[in-house]
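# nightly structure sweep
# worker-07 picked up a monomer target from the shared queue
# config: single-sequence mode, recycle default, output format = C-alpha cells
# input follows
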Amino acid sequence: MASHEDKMAAIFMRERAGISRYLSGRTGSPEDGEDLAQEAWIRFSRSKAIMLAAPVPYLRRLVKNLAIDHSRSASQRRLHSREVNELLNVADSQPGPEDIAISRDRLSNLAKIMEELPARRRAILYAARIEGQPHQQIALTHGVSKRTIELEIRAAIEYCSARLHETDDTEE
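# output follows
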C-alpha cells in the first residue's frame, strides 16, 4: 500500500507541468514560477489534503493563492539601495542653462540672418517652415508655381545654413 507521502507526490507530479506554466505566467518569470512551484510542493506535502475527497482542487487553490501572494508582495516590496541609486542616476534629458543660452543665441542669430533674405524669399520660408503652410497654398498666395516655391525654400535654407556656419566658425 502506498504511503501518504507517495500519494501526495503522485498527485503533485501529475499536476506539476500545469502548475509551473501557470505560476511562470502569473509571475512573468520562469525562475519565480519554479520557486513558487517548490513552495507549493512543500505546503501540499505537509498538508492533510490526501484525506480530502478531492485533493487536486485543493492543490490548485493553494497554487493560485501562492501566485496572488507573490503578486501582492512584488507590488509592495521595498527597493534595495542599489535600485534606488539606479533610479536617481537617470540622465536628465532636459537641456541645462548653458545649452539653453546657446540655443537662444543661435535662434536670435538665425532671426537676424533671415532678415538678410529678400522679402519674398523670407515670407515663403516663414510660411512653409514656421506656419507649416502647404507649398501649393504658398504658391497661390505669391502667384508663382509650386516648383518656384520649392526652389525659393531650398535657396533660403541653404543661405541660412551657410550663414549660421559662418557665424559659428567666427565664434570659435
